[in-house]
Design goal:
about 350 residues, mainly alpha
Length: about 350
């Protein structure tokens, strides 16, 4: 019995350490995502993505980077873009760059893995989306460009869900409330549970997995990246929830290239996403999508290993430096706020399901 208690306590302690290092960045990320959602006008993204051109693919990859949508949450957004006239190449680019990044994930990556990894992740995921989009444009080049004169006037207001609210004006207070509501309710519906799962898995890895095992099988080389690719493709894990998992593995000796492969393949793909893409866009789109993820994650993972060794980045020093830079009370306060928000959101969802079965 004591052994079980000690094990649980050890895992929770390791998970709590990871949470403290990333919670303050997650809070800023969620709030910024809320600002993007509330203040960005409907249709701004879709109207730029309708032609089978390099420009539409570049825009789709760029637009997707800051949006905090997981691999399932991105599906309705991508299909909406498709219905509004976005080209297949642009939709494929959006489907890769969006779930693999997100402003919350970028800040959390910086917190646990450092500025070098965070910067490289953004650039690499943009390039991966660009690759998928360009291949998509090539194979769909004979399809006519979409008519982007379609408007979004019938869409509901983001603040009050009123379809007739297009002519109404909400004051700044309403919009600020909307930012926090979206950040700590809607986003946590998608990311909260998986963040907890990721933290607990990261804690379990830190507690159980011996360093020599990680060094022997995931330390470096093509083998390590292939293993993480095979693990990541079928999994459903969000871009933020996957970070504590790879941080724990990297601290045990896993190569940054293998970590990047998992951070890309895990959030970008899962069985549900592949099924929906096949149904809505066809088998050819699935082949382009999964092939682009495999090629780009392995190639860019190998490049990251070279970049990492060139700069001689020390992950342990980065984490210790952050521990000295950010006051402990601020880390703990942010962690408490985040966990409380997740718990309250879970209670709210259960109450809603009870009253609206």
């Amino acid at each position: 019995m004591n052994m079980i208690v000690d094990t649980v306590v050890g895992i929770v302690q390791e998970a709590y350490f990871l949470l403290n290092k990333m919670s303050i960045y997650l809070l800023f990320g969620f709030i910024f995502a809320g600002i993007l959602h509330i203040f960005m006008k409907e249709g701004v993204i879709a109207k730029h993505l309708g032609t089978n051109s390099v420009g539409s693919v570049v825009k789709a990859s760029l637009f997707g980077i800051p949006l905090p949508l997981c691999s399932c949450g991105v599906l309705p957004a991508a299909l909406s873009l498709k219905k509004e006239g976005a080209s297949n190449g642009a939709v494929l680019a959006f489907l890769i760059s969006t779930p693999t990044t997100g402003v919350d994930s970028i800040l959390a990556t910086y917190a646990l893995l450092g500025g070098l990894f965070a910067t490289y992740r953004v650039i690499a995921c943009f390039l991966a989306g660009l690759l998928a989009g360009m291949i998509g444009n090539f194979f769909y080049k004979n399809e006519p460009s979409s008519d982007m004169s379609v408007t979004n006037d019938a869409q509901k207001c983001k603040l009050c869900e009123d379809e007739e609210c297009a002519t109404k004006r909400h004051n700044l207070v309403d919009k600020i409330k909307g930012v926090f509501s979206y950040a700590f309710q809607d986003l946590l519906d998608d990311a909260g549970a998986w963040l907890i799962v990721g933290l607990l898995l990261g804690g379990a890895i830190a507690y159980f997995v011996p360093e020599d095992m990680v060094t022997n099988y995931l330390g470096s080389g093509f083998q390590a990246m292939v293993i993480m690719l095979l693990v990541g493709i079928p999994m459903y894990v969000c871009a933020t929830g996957s970070i504590p998992i790879v941080a724990s593995l990297m601290l045990k000796g896993m190569s940054p290239g293998a970590a990047f492969v998992f951070l890309m393949a895990g959030p970008a793909t899962n069985s549900v996403a592949l099924t929906v893409i096949a149904k809505q866009m066809g088998k050819k789109a699935v082949i382009i999508f999964i092939g682009s993820v495999i090629i780009s994650s392995l190639a860019l993972g190998a490049v990251l290993d070279l970049v990492w060794s060139y700069f001689d980045f020390d992950l342990v020093d980065h984490i210790m430096h952050h521990s000295a830079t950010i006051p402990a009370w601020l880390e703990v306060g942010a962690s408490i706020f985040l966990i409380t928000a997740i718990i309250m959101n879970t209670i709210r969802k259960k109450a809603h399901h009870t009253t609206h079965p």
